[in-house]
Amino acid sequence: MKKFIALALTLLSASAFSDDACSDDTCRSLMPPSLVIAAAKAFKGFRPPLATDNSADDIEWFVKQGGSGCFGAASADFNGDGRKDFILGLTSDSGNSGMVAAAFATVSGWELEKLADESNESRLRLFVGVGEPGTYELTEALDGPGPDDTSPLKCPHAVAVFGAIEAWGVTYCYNNGEWRHVQTSD
Fold it and tell me: Is cis: bond before 152, omega within 30 of 0?
């Protein structure tokens, strides 16, 4: 009986301090635990992404294409400091909308910055990703740049890309201490 109680207490204490429901999730496996905690604290009303935030059909397609199955987290060095940074598609607590945030790795933890609030888009279709350094142009599908678009967008580092699956995409470049962007697909 004492062994059973000790085992039960051990299991209870282990589950109290771990996020078992998310531990096998593809998105969570891509993110350092310290980033998951920092993102949850920094953006109240939103949580770090899970693979299941997107539709099962989209996830299945992504995996068949050789992807991870996670549309909500991607990493690259966005600011050229040699550290692995992240772009995250956060999910609202209601699960209906999303927010896109960048997370810069620092010596002392994470510097997080909101890039866009996607409250008008269903979180189910939101994706984030990365692109190579280079020059990015405004999509020809648009009549002209929006008030905040920079085209051409020249980026010496990896770029953050996000949008709605099979709908639109925006490319963001961090350079000289600020983010600039251009809509690259529609």
Answer: yes
Residues 6+ apart with CB under 8 A from 151: 136, 137, 138, 145, 182
pTM of the model: 0.82
User: Cα–Cα distance between 105 and 154 in angstroms, integer?
Assistant: 23
> Which residue's structure tokens are 């190579």?
132
Give the E-state strand segments of the chain in sequence order. 46-47, 73-76, 85-92, 98-106, 109-118, 126-131, 134-136, 153-155, 159-164, 168-175, 178-185
Residues forming a β-bridge with 98: 91, 118
Listed residue (75, 120, 123, 61) closest to 96, CA to CA: 123
Domain-wise residue ranges, the chain? 23-185
Per-residue pLDDT tens for 38-77?
A: 999 999 999 999 999 998 999 999 999 998 999 999 999 9
Question: In whole angstroms, what is the distance from residue 56 CA to residue 54 CA?
Answer: 7
Q: What does the alpha-carbon distance between residue 118 and residue 151 come to, in Å, rounded to a whole number?
A: 22
